[in-house]
Amino acid sequence: MKRIAALIGRTALSCWHHGSPRLPPPPAWAPGPPSTCLQVRHLAAKQNKGHFKGEKFKSKSVNLEKQQKQEVEIKQRMTVSELAKAMNKDIDHVYEALLNTDVDLDELEPDTVLEEKWIKEAVKRSGMKHKWAKLVETKVRENKDIQRQPPPDPTQLVPRAPVVTIMGHVDHGKTTLLDSLRKSQIAAQEAGGITQHIGAFRVQLPSGEKITFLDTPGHAAFSAMRARGAMVTDIVILVVAADDGVMKQTIESIQHAKKAKVPIVVAVNKCDKPQADPHRVKEELIGHDVVCEEFGGEIQAIHVSALKGDNLLELAEATVALAEVLELKGDPAGLVEGTVIESRTDKGKGPVTTAIIQRGTLRKGCTLVAGKCWAKVRFMFDEHDQAVSEAGPSIAVEIVGWKDLPSAGEEILEVESEQRAREVVEWRSYMEEQDKLKEDQQAIEAKQKQHQDSYKKERESTAHLSWRQRRAAMYRANKHKLTHRASEKTETEELTLPVIIKGDVDGSVEAILNILESYDADDQCQLDVVHFGVGDISERDINLAETFSGIIYGFNVDANKSIQQMAAKKDIPLRLHRVIYKLIDELKEDLSSKLSPTTEENIIGEASVLATFDVTVGKKKIPVAGCRVQKGLLDKKLKFRLIRGRDILWEGSVTTLKHLKDDVQTVKTGMECGLSLDNEELQYKPGDEIVCYSESEMKQKISWDPGF
């Protein structure tokens, strides 16, 4: 016992001297330290170093917790809301973290600026660690875009052929006029049938002058294509039917020409018809500031018959005469500049564009950029699908060699190498992405502002309360929302029609999408364009339609037999059309089919209650109304309604309908009858009105009006 007590005493003393946790001094009866003090110090040292297993595991777990702590970026003069956002918590969490501190929570608002020590304290109490935010300098990316060249030296310019766009209302004879001009040109060259590979062709007059014609559709849907044609042309030929006069697209074509500051030549077509009145047409044009020469203006008006080919040469000569006045010149040297008139995907050639060359000379091997696409020119073709080696100013050609399909209206610029083309395309894609990010950020900020405004409005009623009282009030207000589990929440199913749009050329797809942009019946059924593109219907389109349960609409495109079979097997509707308004009409029908039918009520007869009495059936008394039919008839098979004053008391069916003592099926106007309803608790009163009506389901129609 003495040895054990001595060991305890020496251990305690050793611990006392070596800075271990304080222990009470040794008792007075404990003997002095023997010569074994070294061993005791060794034990005390081991204990002091913390080599026990429990302390070892404890230190490891503490280190692990430190590693797992969330880091919060802080800065000077942070507000409560900024700190909450940095911690990824709500504002009330910051209030709770600052409980039992010197901060006056009742005076604390979301925009209150916190001192540095309280910022750190809130982070520490939240089980996180802070780090100071670093200022990062963003490097400005070098602009790699390409621009048009400066204007050429006037001494280097050479005369060029005029580019003429034929415009006008639908069915006024533009296509017939173009075909007549094409036929005359093909006959002169002894070539075969008429080709329509591109919407541009050249005509050479007997005198040797050449004219490049561009075609534009006359339908209301193709406004963008007409505007594009006016912007790249030198002269506009406005075709107006002599028997129809100035129409909607005629006026629009005049506006496009004036906006582009392009001179007009009027072609009064269909003059061979008996009801033709060219003079009236010219008078109507005056109302739109198009004054012909015979009325003292400067605009030439040629009377033609596209069907018979009358006066076509005079029209071409008038165009050449106007071109001579304009003194049109071009620069055949330098880098190529042009405009994409149309673009499409060809099965054999791949992406193909129709372009008007405006500067330079395009040759095989040139590297071009248009929008976010680039090309190494492999082949060029004219309007007769004949390969050409070069194309100068005012010449329209098909260009083959594009990596992607550029949009119609894009500016074509030549670059020195493929690497430079890639740089330009990458830069333009980057800038488009940045613009989209800005738009998204603006949308997010607008949504956040809307949320903040609604949050402030919600808290106005509790502004006089402390934050504890405010939180309790908000909990009580939102308590009912917490009673539903996430799995029990139901969303209202909105009607949606997913569609896939395919067209023969880029302009056709653009026209259809422009029409769809006018869709304004989202409250009835949402229209969702999941994909659009150029080319025939493909297997990818079928798979997309299957994924989204959508419908495929094709304009001037085909679907081969295997694609049709695949669509039929997967129950995917294919809507293929050659006329754009028929495509839109079928789209409207498909939208209407999504809508639930409405119930239409038809009043069959009306009767007034003259008297009431009870009839005993077995042991029950049934109330009966004695009525006279005032209008129409009462039919026992139909539905009935009891009206008192302006209130509807009951709706249902009649159990008994009698005339005198006979059960009848119907009672006509002027006849009296007795009837009982399927609700025996109802009490009739003289003067009540009983209405007999039928209900029929009516199909709803979509309210969207595309304008044609």
Explain what the structure shows.
Belongs to the TRAFAC class translation factor GTPase superfamily. Classic translation factor GTPase family. IF-2 subfamily. Keywords: GTP-binding, Initiation factor, Mitochondrion, Nucleotide-binding, Protein biosynthesis, Transit peptide. Pfam families: EF-G_D2, GTP_EFTU, IF-2. With 708 residues, the protein is an alpha+beta fold. The strands form seven sheets. Strands 23, 24, 25, 26, 27, 28, 29, 30 and 31 form a nine-stranded antiparallel beta sheet that branches. It has a six-stranded mixed beta sheet with strand order 5-6-4-7-8-9, with helices on both faces. The longest helix is centred in the middle third of the chain and has 43 residues. It starts with a helix and ends in a 10-residue tail after the last strand. The N terminus is likely disordered.
Which regions have little confidence, pLDDT < 50, spanning 5+ residues? Answer: 1-62, 185-198, 484-492
Give the mean pLDDT.
Answer: 80
Overall form: flat
Sheet with the most strands, sense and barrel status: 9 strands, antiparallel
Provide the β-strand percentage band.
25-35%
**What is the count of β-strands?**
31
Using only C-alpha atoms, the radius of gyration works out to 44 Å
Helix/sheet category: alpha+beta
